Amino acid sequence: MQVLETIAAFILAIGILVLIHESGHFWVAKFMGVKVLKFSIGFGPALISRRWGKDHTEYVIAALPLGGYVKMLGEQSGEEIPPEDGHRTFDALAPGRRFLIALAGPMANLLFAVIAYAGVAWIGIPGLAPIIGLVSDHSLAAQAHLQPGQRITALNGQKVYTWEDMRTGLLSAAIARVPAHLQTNNQGKVTTHTLPLQSLKADSVGPDFLEKVIGMAPYLPATVGAVEPKTPAAAVGLVPGDRIIRVNHHPVPSWESLARQIESHPDKVLELTYRSTHGVSKTVQIKPQMFLDKAGKAIGRIGIVMAPLPPDLIVTRHRGPAEGLLYGLHSIWQMSWMTVEMIVRMIQGFVSPDNISGPIAIAEYAGQSAQAGVAPFLSFLALVSISLGILNLLPIPILDGGHLVFYALEMLRGKPLSPAVVQKAQQIGIVLLLMLMSFAFYNDITRLMTP
Q1: By CB distance 3.0 to 4.6 Å, which of 107, 108, 258, 293 could disulfide with 222?
Q2: Where in this chain does the record put each PDZ domain (predicted)?
């Protein structure tokens, strides 16, 4: 059932974003007086096809929902043009007007992202409180004297409301290769900590950047939410509500710390101290069962599930109409700039190409965000819409950005490029796009095979 929900959320998300993108091309073309022959969401065989309007435009929902297109009269050479429609062909337009039609698709995606982010601001999206739960030994976080229990209140002068705010800010600083100044508050004591992100090694910014490179994780209480039957936890009497406080005499500041200690001791006896639901401290001997992860590495499991987060660790911020729109504009500027900068840094080798996601990863995120609620799904749509808009603006032949280059050159030269040059450029563009898609699929498969 969860797989079906994920597929449905993916199809819905891609359908919405393709509809937005192609609608941009469609409406600007109609405004310019161009006759539109077909408006298709998806590729391949038509599942639904209808003709509407005085131009009898064919509206199609096709079988493969991984894109779409708007077919305009006169786009293709050798096309038969009815005499009465000769003035309504795409190629009869001045290059500046064709430029605007090509630009309209990506711009529609960016405009939608502003509205979606504003919607997120109006609805309010629950986030995890920015409290540090784990700091890895010898990590950048440890060197900056960050400690479990500290609450992050600001990053480079900007207020931090949730853990996601902090994560996005650190990613942005790492991509820009500038230091990150974190302000923390621990029981009223305000301290500033500096992370020298400008000196990170090349290829440092990748998946799990916060945990693997910075070396810290959020605070999640080490409270038992459920105990699986016939497991080590059930055998020693752990029950929902018990709070783990020490393992082998080492304090357990958060769930992440507990998980790491248990996973690193498969089939070895641990001394576990917990506080029961009645407030009584107990110490037991427990031996984690050994399992093999996807990479074949032995890890320990005791059969417990984390309890739901308490209300004081969930932060929800609502904004008014005007503030929500400003939030939408600020968010799209921040994410667009970060996306462009990430592409540049990836070419330079400072950002890992492992960040490129394909349809499998997008489908997973779509399913997770849809299950989380309307606001998380809107936030996901906004982020992917920005990525789609920026990707289509890249000067790669066959993408909108490639067409923009062709039309700009035509305006500068006073005449279009020869069909042979355009055809060769488009063939190169197809190869580049296939290479990018293949690499994205490779990353998706690698993520599935990695624990």
Answers
A1: 258
A2: 121-188, 210-278
Query: Does residue 261 share a domain with residue 176?
Result: no
CA nearest 67: which of 131, 15, 115? 15
The full length of the chain comes to 451
pLDDT in tens, 310-369: 888 888 888 889 999 998 999 889 888 888 888 887 777 776 666 666 666 666 667 777
Active site residue 5: no
Q: What CA–CA distance (Å, rounded) separates 420 from 136?
A: 58
What are the residues whose beta carbons fall under 8 Å from the beta carbon of 89, sequence distance 6 or more? 34, 35, 72, 73, 74, 81
Paired strand residues for 48? 61
Spatial contact of 367 and 6, defined as CB atoms under 8 Å apart: yes
Instruction: Read off the pLDDT band of 442 (50, 70, 90).
Output: low
- CA–CA distance, 350 with 343 (Å, rounded to integer): 10
The per-residue pLDDT for range 255-275, each reduced to its tens digit, is: 988 998 999 999 999 999 999
Write the CB contacts of 360 (distance below 8 Å, at least 6 apart in sequence).
441, 444, 445, 447, 448
User: Does 432 share its domain with 346?
Assistant: yes
- Residue with the two structure tokens 């393709």: 18
CA 126 to chain centre: 17
Same domain, 98 and 158: no
- Evaluate if residue 428 carries a pLDDT over 50: yes
Q: Choose the catalytic residue: 5, 22, 79, 410.
A: 22
| pTM listed for this prediction | 0.78
Residue range 34-54: mean pLDDT, rounded: 91
